[in-house]
Amino acid sequence: MDNNQARIFKRLENNMGSLTAFGVIGIVGMIILPMNSMLLDILLIFNITLAMIIMLLTMFTTDILQFSVFPTLLLITTLFRLGLNVSSTRLILSQGAAGEIIAAFGGFVTGDNYVVGAIIFIIIVVIQFIVITSGAGRVAEVAARFTLDAMPGKQMSIDADLNAGVITDQEAGIRRLNLQSEADFYGSMDGASKFVKGDAIAGIVIVIINFIGGIAIFVGQKGIPFGEAIQMFGVLTIGDGLVSQVPALLISVASGILVTRSASGVDFGSELSKQLLSVPKVIAITAVVLLGLGLIPSLPNLPFLVMAGLNGFLAYFLNEEAKQKEHIEKGKAAKPVSEIEREPENMVRYIQVEALEIEIGYGLIALADASSGGDLLDRIAAVRRQSATEMGIIVQPIRIRDNLQLPSDRYVIKIRGNEIASGEILQDHYLVMDPGNDKIDIKGKKTVEPAFGLPAVWADESQRDKAEMLGYTIVDPTTVMVTHMNEVIRRHSFELMGRQEVKSLLDMVKEKYGAVVEELIPDLLSVGEVQKVLQNLLREQVPVKDLVSILETLADYAVNTKDTEILTEYVRHKLGRTIVKSHLNESGCLDVITIHPDIEQKIYENIQKSFQGSFPAISPDLNTGILENLDRLLKESVFKNMKPVVLASPRIRSPFKRLIEMTFPDLAVISLNEIPNSIEIEGLGMVKMNDN
Predict the structure, then answer these.
(1) Could you say which of 260, 403, 411, 619 would form a disulfide bridge with 359 (CB–CB 3.0 to 4.6 Å)?
(2) pTM exceeding 0.90
């Protein structure tokens, strides 16, 4: 194919949508406007050709989604046939002729006997209307129902493969789209089959109109003898009906083939030969039975004997082929290991590090096995959704691996290949806890709840009723692991916020708020600098769900500074309501511990910058005094059942947080700028150097 032909085909492909639209309008025009008999002949041949192509395509289709346009195409072809019927009826009733194709069909098929033609026409209509179309419609209806019923299970299977790392997010999206398309296809086919039924009824009505109307017009108006009119219009109308119903029959067969095919991955012919001829013994038995029938004197012997010989030869050929395959397989199995051709081993998988993974002992494998009733994969998928909902972070699929080197009842949580946390789980037991009491009056194995470090007991089923009566908290093994995983994600969310995750979040925001992303990146900040700001927020458990506000704030202030620590403080001020909301007490007040002004001044004067951020370079005595005072105030607040935050001035908030985070990692430090005016503040004490 030269360049000119390639350009022509490319232009046709690009304009196919417009050509199709004009074609549909042309079909409607056929119903209204008169048509030349020569053009009608061409369109009738095109109709037969199109129907043949469609039927053959269904036989070579390996998956229904490869021909998902079929329901719409079925409607278009039905409308096209009706347009041809109307055009041919106009010519038959007005001229007593409808071109060479209809006349040829009428003469060749009927043998100039319209009674025979009428019977053949009725048989074709019955086959199409009652047998093929009704059956295909029923199959499509049942398939649509079963597909819809199976969708939740298939979607859970996709989520399980995604969580296990078998497929990527993109592959999961494609699978979900294919699943939805498959359900839509069968639903559309259920409705599209009604078009074929209506087309068959319309064909019968048109034949009757052509026959009776043509005789009435040409006998009454043009004086043709009645017998001649019957002969002429009998052949014409039957020819018209056959030339329309033959393509309709092909389309009906195509619809039946398509909806009854399974997604086997091979075409119909290959699947038929593979399954029908899979057992040579069956063919051999058939040959013996046919031979016996051929030896009966009262039956026609020659056809039975010929068919018996053909089946016997086929059975022998298939049996020899099966023996040859078995011999080859045995040869492969017996081949020395040294002679086996080795494929180059892919080493990439050995150097890949998962962002987040769980290693489990062999005794916990049942928790991840859906066939054994384990729901760990589904629960982990829920954790990922919860992380996105609460923290606004995208957690990559969590890999679950079995590790035979671990004790059977232990699991390990790793981030980028490094162990972050671990725990112990006893199968067929429940974890019993009493948050308000360290002593648990339940028989079992004493342990510590892995997520929050609470004292607990692993108790078996016999102790469950007693634990419920005593008001203890009872947790099943999977929930223990999932809760621990959720807490690890919450505490280490800043480590999981990589550049690729930031890029995904920015792309998501760009779809609806493109202006803010385009203004900020890359002119003002890079993706890496935005990542550092988001990591600073997540390090202190600040959700980044309101990404639009974060990006708008960065765009406002990045013009003046590129210091990510300062930019983080600006963003915290913008997210003040979100930050404070999670720390309010039951009455809606904010319990705070303040810092003495002298300490604030001392810290401010000794702030030093490092690549990890600002920190106060104060004396060890001052450092120790601050931590001891803070520890005393926190113990007093726990006694009062309060959970305060530290209130600091904006200029030292970040350095003070770094000063205390090693000792008090969960203690929030907020600045005055972050507290909305409507929030009431209640002071619980002040951090001082001494008690004076």
Answers:
(1) 403
(2) no
